[in-house]
Amino acid sequence: MAHEARMTAAGITLPGPFAPHAPLLGVVVHGDTARTSGALPRDAEGNFPALGVCGAGVSTETGVACARLALLNAVSLVRAELGSLDRVARVLTITVFVASAPDYTEQPAVADGASQALLELFGDDAGRHTRSAIGVASLPRGAPVEVELTVALTAG
Predict the structure, then answer these.
(1) Half-sphere exposure of 28 (CA within 13 A, CB side)
(2) How far apart are alpha carbons 7 and 156 in whole angstroms?
(3) Would residue 2 count as lying in a domain?
(4) Contact present, 91 and 35 (Cβ < 8 Å)
(5) Cβ atoms within 10 A of the Cβ of 46, count?
(6) If DSSP codes are grouped into helix, strand and coil, which group holds residue 146?
(7) Considering the domain boundaries, does residue 11 fall inside one?
(8) Is the dihedral of CA 124, 150, 18, 1 positive or negative?
(9) pLDDT tens digits for 44-97?
(10) What's the pTM?
(11) Which residues pair with 147 in a beta bridge?
(12) Range in 21-25, 33-37, 41-45, 147-151 the model is least confident about
């Protein structure tokens, strides 16, 4: 099934795209690879559903939902740049930054929200990927999660 059709069938709506501020690009395409800038968890209106730090005011469950939303924003940037998600041959890697309290260790669980969304969007073959889940002290705008996405492209 084509990625656009899979997304429609799953009832997934992409927010955004919310491009980063100048002089940054939302996506750089080079050869057969596209890579996003960090995407934050913004809803369709551009609002953050949660702000703060996981393990200190933001629950792991909320972090998972924010990771999913940040990933959908990254995918939205890719779709806007390419014109269609059907140009994505496969997902290569994601980096998930999690604003974390000093003793918080559930970054991989939070990052699972982004990973699961990729499998829903691209299926098992194209959606399986490598990943890093990194705890940080804070993120832009007070977001609890930020996601970077790298994909391989089809010819054309």
Answers:
(1) 8
(2) 21
(3) no
(4) no
(5) 11
(6) strand
(7) no
(8) negative
(9) 999 999 999 999 999 999 999 999 999 999 999 999 999 999 999 999 999 999
(10) 0.96
(11) 39, 96
(12) 21-25
